[in-house]
Amino acid sequence: MAPEASPERSCSLHSCPLEDPSGSSGPAPTSTLQALDPSGPLAPGHFAYPRGAPQEYQEGSSLLGTGAQAALCSHSSNRSPSPASSQHDGVWKPPSMQRHVVSVRQERAFRMPKSFSQLIAEWPVAVLLVCLAVFLLCTLAGLLGSQLPDFSNPLLGFEPRDTDIGRKLEVWKALQALTGPKKLLSLSPDLEPNSSNSFGTLSPAAWGRAQDSLVRARRMVEPVEDKRQDSFLCGAPEKSYAKLVFVSTSGGSLWNLNAIHSMCRIEQEQIRTHAHFGTLCQRTATNECCPSWSLGNYLAVLSNRSSCLDTTPGDAARVLALLRACAPYYHRGVLVPSCLGSGQDKSPHCAQVPTKCSRSSAIYQLLHFMLDRDFLSPQTADYQVPSLKFSLLFLPTLKGASMMDIYLDGLAEPQLVSDNYTSISGMDLGIKQELLKHYLALDTMYPLLALAAIFFSITLYLRSLFITVMVLVGVLGSLLVAFFLYHVAFRMAYFPFVNLAAVVLLSSVCVNHTLIFFDLWRLSKSQVPSGGLAQRVARTMHHFGYLVLVSGLTTGAAFYGSYLSRLPTVRCFALFMGTAVLVHMAITLAWLPASAVLQERYLARGCVPLAQGPRGGSDPWRLLLAVHRRLRGFRRAAAILSRLLFQRLLPCGVIKFRYIWICWFAALAAGGAYIGGVSPRLQLPILLPAGGQVFRPSHPFERFDAEYRQQFLFEQLPADEGGQLPVVLVWGVLPVDTSDPLDPRSNSSLVSDPDFMPSSPEAQQWLLSLCHGARNQSFFGSQPQGWPTLCFVEALQQWMERPACARIGPDLCCGQPDFPWAPELFLHCLKMMALEQGLDGTRDLGLRFNAHGNLAALVLQFQTNFPYSPDYGQVHHFYTEVSRWLASELGRAPPGLRRGWFTSHLELYSLQHSLSTEPAVVLGLALALAFATLLLGTWNVPLSLFSVAAVAGTVLLTAGLLVLLEWQLNTAEALFLSASVGLSVDFTINYCISYHLCPHPDRLSRVAFSLRQTSRATAVGTAALFASGVLMLPATVLLYRKLGIILMMVKFVSCGFASFFFQSLCCFFGPEKNCGQILWPCAHLPWDAGTEDPEEEKARSGPVAPGSCSEHYELQPLARHRSPSFDTSTATSKLSHRPSVLSEDLQLHDGNCCARPPVAPSSPKDLLLDHQAVFSQCPALQTSSPYKQAGPSPKTWVRQNSQGQEDEPLQASPEAPAHSPKPKAEELPDGLCPSASTLEGLSISDDTSLSTSEPSTRVPDSMGTSPENLDDIRKPAPELGQLNGKRDTLWLALKETVYDPTLPNSHQSTSSWKGRGGPGDGSPVVLPNSQPDLPDVWLRRPSTHTSGYSS
């Protein structure tokens, strides 16, 4: 096999042109023009004459300046060099050129940047250093100006604040904390320590956030008289002990000897052998660790065995028979702790219990604690072989952080706690919060893997590690600046743990911006390859800057909309994330283009050859080169597939099936709305965040709380121990929360009511009637003995009617039957009664005295008959009923008691109420802000509405999918759901801005333009974010798992809605031209062409003084390297029915060259000869043809004068070479196509695009004929469409007019160039073609404002 002739050049980190340094043979071609050093000030697109070079044509052409430093510039192809132009035997042979530049400029040592793009292009290092300095200063100020974040309690702030219910709960919490001896308030005016009243008597510990909403531990059983059992099991089990739940591995019943022995072995091997167990366990009188309360040990006690491993099948059968006989008495409520033992003082109903059931407490404890509720229940008591599904084991150790080591060493791995018979599937060790902090640090690897996947995708897409590192630095810098603004500017004291999710979410926003920017950067480079960096930055930022501004403002506004929530964590996250997005938007506008310029200038050219020749280099290098070639082949195949998919199939599929896409995605959005909002909808939480789900559902801690806790009867809260909802009525303290609503660590203080006056006769009568009215309400329940009273006035009345009421001595209160009493007597007697009640501490009368002994507040309580329930509907009914009754009572109250309020055990209800109402409002506000920002950015109403419709469809479908995943609407879910609006905006805005900036007026062309321009980057970004979300799924912490699910779900759904639903809406109802556009004075739209008078434009531009700066123009190749069936330069959109546009291949550059007044030609013939001389001497203006070579057959045509008469017949030279060197076209970026037609992948036409509005004037084909032969050829002119036997004339629209041969030299000034080219100008500009038998190029200049990119 012959070796390859062109070994590639490669760079390990960056993408660069791959060339063979030894591939070209022979001496280098010579020319009168030579290129400057690439590192010189004119690089990469400027070239000048060397000293001594012939400059035969320097006068008589206004195209060239007369300054000493004026230069005619040329840039030949760097891939296939061709010989210089020469003349042999009178035949002029033009070179084959691909990139041409004509520049007239005056060099200076330093230029002040005139625009932002020039600043980026000329000073990228300075821009990056300024950004880094901002990062460093803000980081130091943020860290030194505030305290470091404290994540010791990650779930802090997950409860609502600053709501009506939340404010009352906070004030009630503060009132409880400030009541007691030596505190702000007391239960009696006697503040001495001998008072027996304490804070604990105010209310049961079952409610109040100070006790973490844990049920008050009660004594499970009364002391029993079975001394043998007590000495073996160390008393009765309690809720404060650690608990383990065993299940059968095979799914069978646990009531068999193998399973019972298995439970004993697992406990002995994994728990009791731990080094710390001996120091934590409860000990017996002999200083030994107590045995566990387990099924095996109770079986040993009842069978008189020394160990659970000594039990036999007969023991199990006898105990089962005993349990079967005693279970009916337990389920009827007769077998209770008071009936156990052999005591004589038992209640009468205990006589119904057989002695064998009450002799020992083991039977009761087995049924109450150890066995599940379905075992031997009334429904299963008749089963011949009852099934025991779950069995509980109480360890003789207290729950708490001390159990952390035992769990991590012996219980964390599933294989350690299971065997062939049983396994531990649920635990309650009291270390859930400590374990959460442990796993939050341990599972950080999963978000880091997600970040690595995101930035690896950027590296793979851009093939540049430098750009990836710079993008990562930009993201981290944006977060640090946002942290500074969060703490220092916004004065936020609390930084929740969920704010760290902004790292992943901001990276998801950044990857979209990065991919879009470099797609536009490559597109501008391919369209103007010889243009300067300033021009490339300007072309790229014209589109990208607009997109980033609209996207950043819309995303930031969507995140800020979540600030409406009353959950402190959600509000803090909204503020931080919105600020981070806006900071990243501002930094990206400078950081990303400066990084691209830095890479283009210094790093992209730093590639070294891998081999010195076709066979050069060592074996490892050749192996590496072969691998590189193979990978390059794969990359080319992927590029072809990408172009096929995103340039042809996707636009065709969207436009052709737009009816299906609209119906399909509208149905998906409607279905998501129904599932998420109607039925079955997102379920509200049933536990407070402190006891809610924080790990994955299969974790033993979560399974105990969600599944196993309700399987045991001792976990049910009896009615006499706080199972009923209480009502707490408060007067004297206003429900004003003075704490910081954004800092859950702050506590509220008490605000007294200045109008509080309970001692007036009207107030006394109203308080007594309130007591009587409450008793008549349907929700008033039985009051437990010792419960705080509601009717303290009635109690005072009964106390004062007694003759000897005061045991502490005679007083005026005794024997006062008259009611109401005088205010002074009423207050005095209240104090005396409170002092007397304080001596024995029998009950709380609801009186709160301040330090001066005055009555400061009233706290009246009573029990209702509403049972406590996690169901939102039942508690809402309770709250509504009590609120209605209290509002009617307060309406009749005297002025001093009208500011009363009530509260109850409503912590969970407050959270449920906020979550049931806020998400819809927050999402609606976020969508409204997104619409307003889009409208301000585009000033187009239909595009803004369609974009918001796509975002709303994404949010609704996401909510429906979350319901199908059985998510509960908890605080974390509400946070991620509110963030879904901000996350789903990016992709839709990509298409919206691209559609808005498209130069075509018709909607189908604009849809195809936007799809071809941004769909590839959108798809790659979606794939990267989907992969990052998948990498977070194995995390143990639920917060990380749900973040990954939300990330991949929202991005995937938003990509579908943006690419299909939004674009299909634009196909039907998309704005055309000015439809739906809010027009402003002096506004120019991309499709507004030919609407301005040339004379007005010339007058506005003003005259140009001598010596003013001229312009620098570029003409790109009109033919690109395409397959025969993909002739893009002549493609006509069959959907838009309009000719293709190639106007963007010519760009205007500022120059500093001073022009000299040109010399007027003597005749039109001299003008034409001068024109041809310029082109023959300056190959920079020669251009390749967009048509295919057909043959060297000469054709004849003529030039007409301005009166339509034939002037000179012209004939193409027969000696023109048939096979001229064809330079290799520059390869475009994968998936990008700056071609003429916006729908080139949909319908390709081989017909030439015609402009029917232009004149059909003909000029000589100077590129096919030598200037010396012009006068010797005269043949009749062909008809329109018969030029050279090929196709009709190709018309191009220029943004600026260049040299016009039909104008006299006196008009060839800079001002005349800028003032001509309007629709009324009938004299076209002619550029000769490089092929001898192909037509010239006709140029015209309409006043068209485009987006800077070819369609």
Automatic annotation (TrEMBL):
Residues 449-598 form the SSD domain. Belongs to the dispatched family. InterPro entries: Dispatched_Hh_regulator (IPR052081), SSD (IPR000731). Residues 21-32, 74-86, 1242-1253 have a biased composition (Low complexity). Keywords: Glycoprotein, Membrane, Methylation, Transmembrane, Transmembrane helix. Gene3D superfamilies: Multidrug efflux transporter AcrB transmembrane domain. Coiled coil: none annotated. It comes from Heterocephalus glaber (Naked mole rat). GO terms for molecular function: transmembrane transporter activity. It is a multi-pass membrane protein. This is Protein dispatched homolog 2. The chain crosses the membrane at residues 123-144, 439-458, 464-485, 497-521, 541-560, 572-592, 659-678, 920-939, 945-967, 974-997, 1017-1040. One of its GO terms (cellular component) is plasma membrane. GO terms for biological process: smoothened signaling pathway. It comes from the Eukaryota. PANTHER family: PROTEIN DISPATCHED HOMOLOG 2, PROTEIN DISPATCHED-RELATED. Residues 1-51, 72-95, 1120-1141, 1183-1285, 1299-1351 are annotated as: Disordered.
